TrEMBL record, chain A:
Dihydroprymidine dehydrogenase domain span: 24-134
Keyword field: Oxidoreductase
Pfam families recorded: Fer4_20, Pyr_redox_2
Keyword Chaperone on entry: no
Top EC class, one word: oxidoreductase
Protein name: Glutamate synthase (NADPH/NADH) small chain
Record region (Disordered): 1-22
Domain FAD/NAD(P)-binding, chain residue ranges per copy: 147-455
Matches recorded under SUPFAM superfamilies: alpha-helical ferredoxin (SSF46548), Nucleotide-binding domain (SSF51971)
Source superkingdom: Bacteria
Keyword flag DNA-binding: no
The organism's taxonomic lineage, starting at the top: Bacteria, Pseudomonadati, Thermodesulfobacteriota, Desulfobulbia, Desulfobulbales
Entry-linked InterPro entries: DPD_II (IPR028261), FAD/NAD-bd_sf (IPR036188), FAD/NAD-binding_dom (IPR023753), Helical_ferredxn (IPR009051), SudA-like (IPR006004)
Molecular-function GO terms, alphabetical: glutamate synthase (NADH) activity; glutamate synthase (NADPH) activity; iron-sulfur cluster binding
Automatic annotation (TrEMBL), chain B:
PANTHER family for the chain: DIHYDROOROTATE DEHYDROGENASE B (NAD(+)), ELECTRON TRANSFER SUBUNIT, DIHYDROOROTATE DEHYDROGENASE B (NAD(+)), ELECTRON TRANSFER SUBUNIT-RELATED
NCBIfam families membership: PRK06222.1 (NF004862)
Domain annotation FAD-binding FR-type: ranges: 1-96
Protein name: Ferredoxin--NADP+ reductase
Top class in the EC scheme: oxidoreductase
Cofactor(s) demanded: [2Fe-2S] cluster
InterPro entries: Cyt_c3_hydrogenase_gsu, Dihydroorotate_DH_Fe-S-bd, FAD-bd_FR_type, FNR_nucleotide-bd, OxRdtase_FAD/NAD-bd, PyrK_electron_transfer, Riboflavin_synthase-like_b-brl
Length: 470, 278
């Protein structure tokens, strides 16, 4: 991020120290190592404390950015984190994974002429400081209302709902299908970008507040929404994410050595397969790895493959660099670590051997044609440009859809044509009485902060319902 | 934590039965469904079919063959010990219907999976012939239970140490020749299910098999369990595990089951060395 624009300027941002690319490309430790207090205060001093701050309008949940930054300048770290928590329950996470360049930092006035204030880095610093030096004091809780709320799914959106409602005095239980809570934060985003100890601590914080977490509960199978109501829950929040892997439907897709990013990252992160055989779950170690797609999920897969010892890792993407949906910082980190970008390249089929194992793939070169409905220039294949890429592992990271496991068991909850839950945009209410939904299961795969924003909105609406009525 | 309340060794300790406290799952479990178990913090998520469930007692029963590291780890758990995680019930329940004459064919630990299905088919009024097989007499499981669950039990061993000398497919063919069979259910090693399906296709008898690809989540989220059915990709954990045997690409399934063979062997050895050193 430090050299985001590559410009030399009078007032550059304070770079966050990070592990050397060569070293970090072979370990799973976090890449940026964090500011010191001195660095943070120096960076905080770059903020102009705007009266009409653009940065705040760029943040989907409206964090009072000049407010918390001013508290860092004053050295009041306890005040800074408490100020952040008012709008954002997971600053340690957002500071690390928000696409700041198109959100808060993208609107920062200082960024108009040079590098914007490093808002994400500062947010992360406050949260890390609290974790290392804080008193661990819990926020005040309203007296108990005796009302029970169930939250389905423990991703950022479910965690936000749980945190908001527990302090309002409700009795909250989270039901999570996996054996560990955290959603994509634990099974998707890798350790080197978001250490799992941080997520565990956030969950532990909620548990200390009184939130109950029931893992291994696949709602729709172990228990249904109606059964939860029968058990005495008065409101339910559905935040089950967009956990359905998309494949490309190319010939040869079921060869051994082709995995969805969901499977690959779940093995690596949730199951900690990079420690095999000290842990029991294996993961394929590719020598020559191809990753299809160019979003955050693709970058995470590619960087994981490198850390697992690959000799070459290629990102294959059919559009050009400008259209790559990943955060700029991730693309930059990936390239530094030696990952090749094969742009304007489209796979057409997989090649395998007699044992059913992947040996390579055939691709076509593309060129940019007329703009399509999204305004992006549509890639069109160049005739006769077929070529082969040797690979023994291919990770498919071309997006995800709505997982029907819960929704197909809940016939009175309306879905749209892609299987996502239909909600009232102002409240998060679904068409089923007493049920709210938010996050990726409503919007399709989006971002952590949007999932949290939806959670906050629904929590407010649930609180109104429990105190005033539907 | 999910406590083991009963443990039984079969076939000289290569097949183990565990009855486990899991009240929520026991309440919901239907024949044909499975659970995913994880022994401890570092454990792998292993799918096993429920051989039985008791909603009153709040327990489920699994029967598994010790084949690699994770099942070896499971074998070391005694009555009073617990699995850290048990998730379920997963997969679609068997569609049980009264059709008339039915053959249930089981091999290896597939017999355990077949047991509740056989019982269910009999209970709703089908005429059930059951054929079970094993390599040799000592590896046969649940003979008495299968006798009770069906009208007619035939036993085969590959080496002729007990019952019919030969494969289950030969006996099945005799029963098919007698005519009128409306459904075959076959559960066991992949080559057995493949052979059964090939024969029943010639007889034009609908055939149901239960597939066991490698799984991670069991909820349709990873796609690791994909199988090809009639040319289409399906996720066995949510679309199955039971499928029309005439549509299954068994060769692909066999190759996909080998995906981690070398890693698994190393891991199992690693585990045995550590355990034996203790
Ligand atoms: C690899 C990867 C990298 C990403 N990188 C970024 C990034 O850098 N920045 C960013 O902002 N966003 C990123 N995202 C997107 C972001 O993580 C998601 O938008 C966000 O996590 C969605 O939150 P959620 O709470 O809606 O769902 P999720 O985080 O998906 O959580 C849903 C939870 O519900 C559980 N669940 C599902 N079904 C059931 C059921 N039937 N019963 C009980 N529980 C159930 C799931 O197991 C899961 O734990 C990334 C996503 C991935 C996959
Ligand atoms: C839905 C489902 C239901 C199942 N029900 C039962 C059951 O009731 N009883 C039972 O004994 N087994 C059952 N299995 C198979 C069982 O899950 C595997 O035997 C187990 O995962 C092996 O783990 P391991 O670590 O001990 O051995 P590994 O070291 O992982 O494997 C050892 C050998 O077993 C093969 N193998 C690996 N995974 C599987 C698998 N999923 N299925 C078959 N072979 C595999 C490998 O190719 C290898 O050769 C079921 C599988 C599925 C998917
Ligand atoms: S939550 Fe995200 S977008 Fe908002 S200020 Fe923090 S880093 Fe920026
Ligand atoms: S826009 Fe930039 S300079 Fe202005 S308040 Fe926000 S962070 Fe500070
Ligand atoms: S086991 Fe992951 S989709 Fe079936």
């Amino acid at each position: 991020m430090a050299d985001i624009a590559g410009k030399t300027q009078k007032n550059p941002r304070v770079p966050m120290p990070e592990q050397e690319p060569k070293v970090r490309a072979r370990n799973f430790l976090e890449v940026p190592t964090g500011y010191t207090m001195k660095m943070a205060q120096e960076e905080a001093a770059r903020c102009l404390q705007c009266k009409k701050p653009g940065c705040v309008t760029g943040c989907p949940v409206g964090v009072d950015i000049p407010g918390f930054i001013d508290l860092i300048v004053q050295g009041d770290m306890s005040g800074a984190i408490r100020h952040l928590w008012k709008m954002n329950a997971l600053p340690a996470v957002c500071g690390r994974v928000c696409p700041q360049e198109i959100q808060c930092e993208g609107q920062c006035i200082v960024g108009k002429k040079g590098q914007p204030v490093a808002i994400g880095n500062l947010e992360r610093f406050c949260a890390d400081y609290e974790r290392e030096h804080g008193t661990g004091e819990l926020p005040p809780k309203q007296p108990s209302t005796g009302k029970k709320v169930a939250v389905v799914g423990s991703g950022p959106s479910g965690l936000t709902v749980a945190g908001d409602l527990i302090v309002k005095g409700h009795d909250v239980t989270i039901y999570e299908a996996f054996h560990k809570p955290g959603g994509v934060l634990v099974y998707g985003i890798p350790e080197f970008r978001l250490p799992k100890a941080i997520v565990a601590q956030e969950v532990n914080f909620l548990e200390r507040l009184g939130v109950k977490v029931e893992c291994n509960a696949v709602v729709g199978r172990t228990v249904s929404l109606d059964e939860l109501f029968a058990e005495g829950y008065e409101a339910i929040y559905v935040g089950v994410g967009a956990g359905l892997p998309k494949f490309m439907n190319l010939p040869g897709e079921n060869l051994v050595g082709i995995l969805s990013a969901n499977e690959y990252l779940t093995r690596a992160n949730l199951m900690k397969a990079y420690q095999f055989p000290d842990v029991d779950t294996p993961i394929p170690h590719g020598k020559n790895v191809v990753v299809l797609g160019a979003g955050n999920v693709a970058m995470d897969s590619a960087r994981t493959a490198m850390r697992l010892g690959a000799e070459t890792v290629k990102i294959v993407y059919r559009r050009s660099r400008d259209e790559m949906p990943a955060r700029k910082a991730e693309i930059h980190h990936a390239e530094e670590e030696g990952i090749e970008m094969c742009l304007l390249t489209n796979p057409t089929r997989y090649l395998g051997n007699e044992k059913g194992r992947l040996t390579g793939m055939e691709c076509l070169r593309m060129e940019l044609g007329e703009p399509d409905a999204s305004g992006r220039r549509r890639p069109v294949p160049i005739k006769g440009s077929e070529f082969q890429v040797d690979c023994d592992l291919c990770i498919v990271a071309v997006g995800s859809g709505a997982n029907p496991l819960l929704t197909s068991e809940t016939s009175d909850m309306q879905l749209n044509k892609w299987g996502y839950v239909v909600t009232d945009p102002a409240t998060g209410k679904t068409t089923k009485k007493g049920v709210w939904a938010g996050g990726d299961i409503v919007t399709g795969a989006a971002t952590v902060i949007l999932a949290m924003g939806a959670g906050r909105q629904a929590a407010d609406s649930i609180h109104n319902y429990l105190t005033l009525g539907w | 934590m999910f406590k083991i309340v009963r443990r039984q060794e079969m076939t000289g300790g290569t097949v183990i039965l565990n009855e486990i406290e899991a009240p929520l799952i026991a309440k919901k479990a239907r024949p044909g469904q499975f659970v995913i178990l994880k022994a401890n913090e570092n454990g792998e998520r292993i799918p096993l079919t429920m051989a039985d469930s008791d909603p009153e007692k709040g327990t489920i029963t699994i029967i598994y063959m010790v084949v690699g590291k994770s099942t070896a780890l499971f074998r070391d758990l005694q009555v009073g010990d617990s699995y850290q995680d048990v998730i379920g019930p997963l997969g679609k329940a068997t569609h049980l219907e009264k059709v008339g004459k039915v053959i249930c064919v089981g091999g290896g630990t597939g017999v355990a999976v077949l047991h509740p299905i056989t019982r269910g088919l009999k209970e709703i009024g089908n005429d059930v012939t059951c054929i079970i097989g094993a390599r040799t007499k000592d590896l046969l499981i649940l003979e008495d239970e299968m006798k009770k669950a069906s009208h007619d039990l035939r036993v085969c061993t590959d080496d002729g140490t007990y019952g019919h000398h030969g494969f289950v497919t030969q006996v099945m063919q005799e029963v098919l020749d007698a005519g009128d069979v409306k459904l075959v259910v076959a559960i066991g090693p992949v080559p057995m299910m493949k052979a059964v399906s090939k024969i029943t296709k010639d007889y034009n008898v609908p055939t149901m098999v239960s597939l066991n690809p490698i799984m991670v989540d069991g909820t349709g989220m990873c796609g690791g369990c994909r199988v090809t059915i009639g040319g289409e990709t399906k996720f066995a954990c949510v679309d199955g595990p039971e499928f029309d045997g005439h549509q299954v690409d068994f060769d692909e399934l066999m190759m996909r089951l080998q995906a981690y063979q070398e890693d698994e062997r190393d891991s199992h050895q690693h585990y045995c060395t550590i355990r034996d050193a203790k």
